[in-house]
Amino acid sequence: MRIVILCGGESAERDVSLASGSSVARALLERDHQVVLVDPGAEEPVLAGPLRPGDGVDAFAVGKEPPSAAGRRLLRERVRARLTEGPVLDLLREADLVFLALHGGWGEDGRVQDLLGAAGIRFTGAGSAACAAAWHKDRAQAALAAAGLPVVERAVWRPGPGEVPEEVRRLVAAGPVVAKPVADGSSVSVHLVDSLAELALVAAGTGPDGVELLVEPFLPGREFTVAVVGDQVLPVVEIELTTPLFDYTAKYQPDAVTEVCPARVPTDFADRLQELALRAHQVLGFGTDVYSRTDFRCDAAGEPMCMEVNALPGLTATSLLPLAATGAGWTYPDLIQHIVDLATR
Fold this sequence. Notes:
Blueprint lengths: L1 E5 L7 H17 L3 E5 L7 E6 L20 H11 L4 H8 L2 E4 L4 H4 L2 H8 L9 H8 L1 H10 L8 E3 L8 H8 L3 E5 L9 E3 L2 H9 L8 E5 L5 E7 L2 E2 L3 E4 L7 H5 L5 E3 L6 H17 L7 E8 L5 E7 L9 H8 L4 H13 L1
Parallel strand pairs: 1-2, 1-4
Antiparallel strand pairs: 2-3, 5-8, 6-7, 6-8, 9-10, 9-11, 9-13, 11-12, 13-14
Helix pairs in contact: 1-13
């Protein structure tokens, strides 16, 4: 097939997406596809290609910190322009399939899917509605709770003039709490907070745009993640932390954490996590032709809570979905081919 990989983009997860894109390109070439690697946010959007089986692809290393917010407005303008008209859009239309290796921002909140759908372009992963449902953490958790899935208590706060809302004050007083953007990914800007003074510092760091923060109790228990690919639930992965939070640095730097698959847990507990992940996948509108990854954290009693559902989880060499696929007996190219097959069947 002629496949265009979209990666990079305009989000804080831009580096992660570029690393995913290069990994996906190598896997697709190994499976005899023709590949063009495109970053719609870059000044020169075609990063490589057309590539044919046997061609090499340079790896992309993820930095220790996510890119700064400076320049993201220009990146967004480029992404919008290139996905609505011009040679990049023509390239996407000529392809048999667009493989979405975008993470965060417009790539995961449904806007890129809207633009591709309007252009009649076939792409991998969930559609715009499911992406939007999963991307906003507060609304996603409300939907999961309404369906009977376990979620943590939470409060949403848009920092600005005036008092901190009472529900936020109450959570902090019972603390510690975790504060993070209500719509973001890859554990970007996640903070462990013990006081209102610390929360004020986090709020000050959100900038002038008024980013909404999700404030929720810190859960001290074990951390797990479970992926669903099509109608198959993959083995449970445990993330063994040496720090309180699984933040951006821990996710993308080798040896920062230990990730175990299959997780060393009782069978009934693993079955429960897999059932919860499948239900979360379905509740948020993910069908049997797409994939997702649901993250869990346990409370002090060991009870798992659904923290979020990822519509386009990372596909780097150190990402959790490829590790789960390995636990299921798939190679990395097997996983990528499964995703292609789901989008084209």
